[in-house]
Amino acid sequence: MGHLTQRNLNTTRERLRDQVAHHLRAALISGELRPGQVYSAPGLAEDFGISATPVREAMLDLAREGLVEPVRNKGFRVTEVNERDLDQYTEIRTLIEVPMIGRITRSASRQDLEALRPVAEEIVRAARDHDLIGYLDADRQFHLSLLALAGNDRLVETVGDLRKRSRLYGLTALDERDQLLPSAEEHLELLNLMLAGDAEAAEHCMTRHLGHVRSLWAHSTQDHIPAQPSRPLRPATR
């Protein structure tokens, strides 16, 4: 039944909590856990074949990220992201990340920038291999590691939070239409411009990349109908 099928989960409590959170994020990305729907920790725990406690703890982690919200005596509702939210997230990211890319281009060492090439290449590989979780993990690592070169931890935290809240619903549909690869390849283009020391071109590339990502969100929210898992996840009883 998709991302919540039987898992080989580590029994260490802290590790188990992290693993459950990872699989729940995967289910959110694929649309297996649906926006606006309420799910109970005991119900999800039954799907995992574990106790409800680590599932509840994992859901609380996701709630702190803005991915779900607690519903008293029922469970957790998957938060919905509307067009206004996406526009605002993109605007904030543009205000922060575009000028920072220019600054980092002028200040970062070639060695530090080159160290990000394997991550940029991993983004492209994941897109080609239709590895959606790998794609998002590598994409997040690339952008946050790049921003970290500016030396402002709070800035990295802020962008990281925005990225979590603006995750792609229906990423599977975009992948099936081969719309992820062009966005993936822009990471290598950006890195090459920064290595060439062209701050202005790097800023333009970053602006285009964020606009590209925003258009993917638009297609995702407007066109995607979540795929039905082989055995539907059971929402909480209302």
Short structural summary:
This protein is mostly helical and 238 residues long. 66% of the residues lie in helices and 4% in strands.
What can you tell me about this protein's structure?
This protein has helices spanning 13-30, 41-48, 52-64, 83-107, 110-114, 117-128, 132-148, 153-165, 171-176, 181-195, 199-223, and strands at 38-39, 68-71, 75-78. It has two domains: 2-78, Arc Repressor Mutant, subunit A; 83-223, GntR ligand-binding domain-like (Four Helix Bundle (Hemerythrin (Met), subunit A)). The two termini are 23 Å apart. α2 (41-48) packs across α3 and α7 (132-148) runs antiparallel to α8. The radius of gyration is 19 Å and the shape is elongated. The chain contains eleven helices and three strands. It has a three-stranded antiparallel sheet. β2 (68-71) and β3 form a beta hairpin. The protein has 238 residues and is mainly alpha-helical.
Helix % is 55-70%
The mean pLDDT is: 84
Radius of gyration: 19 Å
Spatial order of the strands in the main sheet?
1-3-2
Low-confidence stretches: 223-232
Structural class: mainly alpha
Q: Tally of extended strands?
A: 3
CATH architecture of the largest domain: Up-down Bundle
CATH topology term of the largest domain: Four Helix Bundle (Hemerythrin (Met), subunit A)
CATH superfamily of the largest domain: GntR ligand-binding domain-like
Proportion of residues in β-strands: under 5%
Return the domain count.
Answer: 2
> Shape from CA axes?
elongated
Q: Which class of the largest domain in CATH terms? A: Mainly Alpha
Count of helical segments? 11
Main sheet overview: 3 strands, antiparallel
User: What gap, in angstroms, lies between the N and C termini?
Assistant: 23 Å
Q: Element order, helices and strands?
A: HEHHEEHHHHHHHH
